[in-house]
Amino acid sequence: MHNFEFVKPSNIADAVQAMASEGAQALSGGQTLLPTMKQRLAQPETLVSLTAIPEMQGVCMGEGGLHIGAATTHATVAQEAASLYPGLAALAGGIGDPMVRNRGTVGGSVANNDPAACYPSAVLASGATVVTNTRKIAADDYFQGMFTTALEEGEIITSVIFPVPAKSAYVKFNQPASRFALTGVFVAQFDTGVRVAVTGASNNGVFRWAEAEAALSKDFSAAALAGLSVDASEMINDLHGTAAYRANLVKVLTGRAVTAAR
Amino acid sequence: MTKVSMTVNGKAVSAEAEGRTLLSAYLREGLGLTGTHIGCDTSQCGACVVHVDGKAVKSCSVFAMDVAGSEVRTIEGMANADGSLSVLQQAFQDNHGLQCGFCTPGMVMASAALLADNPKPTEAEVRHHLEGNICRCTGYHNIVKAVLAASGQDVPAVAAE
Ligand SMILES: Cc1cc2nc3c(=O)[nH]c(=O)nc-3n(C[C@H](O)[C@H](O)[C@H](O)COP(=O)(O)OP(=O)(O)OC[C@H]3O[C@@H](n4cnc5c(N)ncnc54)[C@H](O)[C@@H]3O)c2cc1C
Ligand code: FES
Ligand code: FES
Prior knowledge:
The complex is a heterodimer. Chain A has 10 helices and 12 strands. Chain A folds into 3 domains: 5-49, Uridine Diphospho-n-acetylenolpyruvylglucosamine Reductase, domain 2, CATH 3.30.43.10; 54-162, 2-Layer Sandwich (Uridine Diphospho-n-acetylenolpyruvylglucosamine Reductase, domain 3), CATH 3.30.465.10; 167-261, 2-Layer Sandwich (Enolase-like, domain 1). The model of chain A has no long low-confidence stretch (mean pLDDT 97). By secondary structure, chain A is α+β, with helices and mostly antiparallel strands. The longest helix of chain A is centred in the last third of the chain and has 18 residues, at 243-260. Helix content of chain B is 29%, strand content 16%. By secondary structure, chain B is α+β, with helices and mostly antiparallel strands. Chain B contains 5 helices and 5 strands. Chain B has a 5-stranded mixed beta sheet with strand order 2-1-5-3-4, sandwiched between helices. The complex binds flavin-adenine dinucleotide (FAD) and FE2/S2 (inorganic) cluster (2 copies). Flavin-adenine dinucleotide is lined by residues 25-33, 50, 70, 95-96, 100, 103-105, 107-109, 111-112, 114, 117-119, 156-157, 178-180 of chain A.
């Protein structure tokens, strides 16, 4: 790993300033960034640790729903959101393993937008808002394809605001070696309709399955999906599963998530 | 190089580190605490697990500078004050929960974190909790038995045996 300057600001303003320097990059839990740096796929000149900033920590109900500080770990979300947004807490509690959950954070996951990551599906299905140091970005505008987001150079996610659905569930089909999602589906039922977001399946990253949303908004049952099929042409085709296999998984897992939703 | 200080196994320590120095390297090379093992160095195997402020983490995937000032506990800090094995360590020995022993420091640290949160876990909870710890020798059954025994529960014939 190449060496770098390490800074650990204690407030957002100092972090933003540090991020403005040439070659600076944010470090949150490091569970994605450290392996990437070891492979020399990232070579920041300055790493700006975001884990000592109190405003970026914690889970609480507020305007617009559940506010989660970007540097809050998966383990904390699993515990503290359990009664407030059970579907989201269960997702956080199923990420990786206990050690990964003790370091990895919601902000890091959402910034990275790995096509097989769990959190992006919850953000999109909840219609969440990604809050940065400069603006608020709606989930529908935020995700722009694999590893691509609306974030600008140097922009820091400070929190994510999740509207809390009446019922929700995330069902993930584990890729057994990595424990990432081979495919995962988050279903959220709001008074205004149902949102369905799929991760791990598409070459274009996390996406909403519009036909299922329409069917489930009329009849919130697995049976409502019976006549639907998922186009396999945009699905990921790799050694873990074919495109057709993933397309089928999307439908199966959506049905399971509807049945599991509470 | 900068001096990085923290508390390790109850003692205030400091050692030279660069930004890129991993906590695992700080412990092993900086402090000579080689009980923490490096298996994969890619956050997959769990051999390097230590506790930082009471939470189990993979020390190969944390920068030493990022946890400066923290309370760290390693396998060297697990024995009783008189040097005898702790209940959990003794249970690993009694239940033949190790063969080559390479994974054992990480298994003990991960299991200790589980028992601190959940003093009487079920067999399924133990297996689920140890998902991030890989053992190439034992086939896991005896590790699971050791953790159940350390929790003071009867050790049944475990599933799938
Ligand atoms: C063994 C293992 C298993 C895993 N399994 C899963 C899984 O099942 N599901 C899953 O979803 N994930 C999984 N992960 C990934 C894990 O959840 C990561 O923690 C997460 O994807 C990244 O979060 P982080 O806080 O560690 O971010 P970091 O690694 O610190 O950062 C990731 C990227 O985001 C940027 N960044 C970080 N924070 C911010 C911010 N606030 N604003 C702007 N940019 C920022 C960084 O610069 C970097 O580019 C796994 C990881 C490992 C090692
Ligand atoms: S050496 Fe750290 S997880 Fe394998
Ligand atoms: S005892 Fe050899 S790897 Fe576990």
